[in-house]
């Protein structure tokens, strides 16, 4: 049992790991941006969910009317949740994939498609672009993650 | 201060890490499956949330009636969120646990219970099975994660 | 191209990695606590979302009245989702940061502020404290994560 994983200590010092670090940081920063966009829409649309957030608008009914949902806020929140659902698998599977000894060229291809797909997905969701823009960008990120999972299981399967 | 963690470079080349890689990939793939099940129910139940997703059903009121919530869609979404809430801790704590030098037998026991618990949880949620099926499968995964966290803190505590 | 990342095999055996393991485990356990608090409020407020969860209250209308939302339950759930949105970036970026060769003092500062900010955020959300308590504690964790991301990209950028 001395597969690719055995060479991990060498592999981790290499460009594939640097590439993983770079693209993971980029997609996580992109995901974090969704919090700021949500806050921006909550403030400009005056649509809050916590009573303590509307206290500066006065008391009683005057503040209460800002406790409401807004379509733009909800749209950003859905995009944020979709990021979580897709970037969490990338975070875990991508790390294991980077440690499974892929070719640099192949690894970069996977990471770049994933990052490009998630950035496109955000634009498709927020503008919004007509379908199937959002669907296809989601599917591209999903397919790339499945491909990396396949490589991990082929290299490291230990049940 | 030369505890178990100090031997990390050797440990990472071993079967515990391979086992972590395998079970993490399995539970992340299972979580990703929830996206496909959500899409399946949205399409078969014709229950969408984004106006651009109903454009193919025509314009105006004709398309608008498909912008609705459906109990089956919401159920899958709750299962998906529960996965996120429980698999994210496993992803992080499990990795640190795998690097903390556990016995292979003990580690496999933890990983297998966690993966089995989450798969059972999904069936219990989606069928749905009567309680306490869902509650117990959730608790099994939760308990195993706490047990791994205890081992990590015992090995690596550095405040 | 032999930057800080190249020394990874040594770095991983060190106190920065131990500190990362400790603080990550703490914030993930804190996040897991949100599940228990949600369950506590669901049971004490008798506010459930799945019909199978109210079966023990009897059948028909008698059980159905407990299928409702409760402001306290929803508040904890929002805090839980906010944890996911912020702790997932910390999990990934923090790991890469720990591997990027920071000074121990600087790394501890980052990890401690993050953990303190997330714990404060939970108290601010659940009590709730008047704003800007929740906003500031959220911003502190966010800023620290950005700072770590900057260090990772400065060390490992490989596009």
Model description:
The structure is a homotrimer of 159-residue chains. Chain A is an all-alpha fold and 159 residues long. Chain A has a domain at 15-39 and 71-156: Up-down Bundle (Four Helix Bundle (Hemerythrin (Met), subunit A)). Chain A is 71% helix and 0% strand. The first copy, chain A, contains six helices and no strands. Chain A has helices at 8-11, 15-44, 61-64, 71-98, 104-126, 133-156. The longest helix of chain A is centred in the first third of the chain and has 30 residues, at 15-44. The first copy, chain A, is elongated, with a radius of gyration of 20 Å. Mean pLDDT of chain A is 90; it is low at 1-11. Chains in contact: A-B, A-C, B-C. Chains A and B meet through helix 4 and helix 6 of A and helix 2 and helix 4 of B.
Radius of gyration of chain A: 20 Å
- CATH architectural category of the domain at 15-39 and 71-156 in chain A: Up-down Bundle
Strand-residue fraction of chain A?
under 5%
- Estimate percent helicity of chain A: over 70%
| Low-pLDDT segments of chain A | 1-11
Structural class of chain A: mainly alpha
Give the count of helical stretches of chain A: 6
Describe the global form of chain A. elongated
> What are the secondary-structure elements of chain A, in order, as H or E?
HHHHHH
Give the distance, in angstroms, between the N- and C-terminal Cα atoms of chain A.
Answer: 14 Å
**How many β-strands of chain A, per DSSP?**
0
User: What is the third-level CATH name, the topology of the domain at 15-39 and 71-156 in chain A?
Assistant: Four Helix Bundle (Hemerythrin (Met), subunit A)
Oligomer description: homotrimer
**Largest interface by Cβ-Cβ < 8 Å:** A-B, 36 and 29 residues
């Amino acid at each position: 049992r001395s597969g690719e994983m055995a060479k991990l200590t060498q592999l981790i010092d290499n460009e594939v790991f640097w590439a993983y670090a770079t693209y993971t940081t980029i997609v996580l920063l992109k995901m974090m941006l969704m919090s700021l966009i949500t806050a921006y829409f909550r403030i400009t649309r005056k649509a809050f969910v916590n009573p303590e957030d509307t206290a500066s608008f006065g008391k009683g009914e005057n503040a209460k009317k800002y406790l409401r949902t807004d379509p733009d806020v909800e749209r950003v929140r859905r995009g944020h949740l979709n990021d979580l659902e897709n970037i969490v698998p990338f975070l875990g599977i991508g790390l294991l994939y980077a440690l499974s000894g892929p070719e640099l060229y192949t690894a970069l291809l996977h990471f770049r498609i994933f990052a490009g797909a998630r950035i496109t997905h955000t634009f498709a969701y927020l503008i919004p672009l007509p379908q199937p823009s959002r669907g296809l960008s989601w599917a591209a990120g999903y397919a790339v993650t499945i491909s990396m999972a396949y490589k991990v299981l082929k290299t490291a399967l230990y049940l």
